[in-house]
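FORM 12-B: Structure-to-Sequence Request
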């Protein structure tokens, strides 16, 4: 069939995704603080894109609970909402349990090695007190089973709710017992390698439950 006559479809899609990821990451890492007003013109200048992908990104972020928009008035970075984060934690825990349950029978030696590598980077980042690198390595570790389970619904749900968790983790990172998570990751790997699906699921649940103390901390007040 002939190539469609419409132009720019791929570039628009990439611009939209780039704008979304950049604003999302800036909210999660605290560059854009809770309560901060988001000015379209400033975002357009920062990202080097037109207003359309910026507005589309903000609409998507509002659906995730990361921004609040009042049409014709303003858009704000959402205040930290511990109740919403508790709900997100319950959902993400369940999704990671499901991912591990479906992935274990199919994990390859290469994937297990990738989990070990991610955990080594996680431990190194913790020793260096590098919160950003630690959270990135933790994401890499868990994403291996998410990818291996080949369940698009799991990935979609995690993409929706994980940023809420990571945002609060960044604020209170020093309060987490990260070194305990290194050992928990090692146990998950061992159980996966042994083919112990239910054991790996239980270890994954325990790992994500270590976030519970964090959720009992009152977030800082919004400016």
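FORM 12-B RESPONSE
SEQUENCE OUT:
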């Amino acid at each position: 069939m002939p190539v469609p006559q419409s132009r720019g479809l791929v570039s628009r899609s990439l611009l939209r995704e780039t704008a979304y990821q950049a604003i999302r990451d800036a909210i999660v890492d605290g560059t854009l603080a809770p309560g901060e007003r988001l000015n379209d013109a400033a975002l357009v200048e920062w990202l080097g894109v037109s207003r359309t992908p910026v507005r589309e990104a903000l609409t998507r972020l509002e659906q995730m609970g990361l921004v609040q928009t009042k049409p014709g008035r303003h858009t704000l970075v959402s205040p930290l909402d511990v109740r919403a984060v508790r709900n997100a934690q319950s959902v993400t825990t369940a999704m990671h349990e499901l991912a591990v349950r479906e992935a274990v029978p199919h994990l390859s030696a290469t994937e297990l090695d990738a989990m070990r590598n991610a955990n080594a980077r996680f431990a190194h980042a913790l020793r260096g007190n590098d919160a950003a690198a630690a959270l990135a390595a933790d994401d890499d570790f868990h994403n291996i089973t998410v990818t291996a389970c080949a369940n698009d619904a799991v990935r979609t749900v995690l993409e929706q709710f994980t940023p809420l968790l990571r945002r609060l983790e960044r604020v209170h990172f020093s309060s987490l017992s990260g070194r305990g998570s290194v050992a928990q990751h090692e146990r998950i790997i061992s159980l996966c390698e042994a083919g112990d699906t239910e054991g790996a699921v239980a270890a994954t649940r325990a790992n994500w439950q270590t976030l519970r103390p964090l959720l009992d901390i009152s977030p800082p007040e919004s400016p």
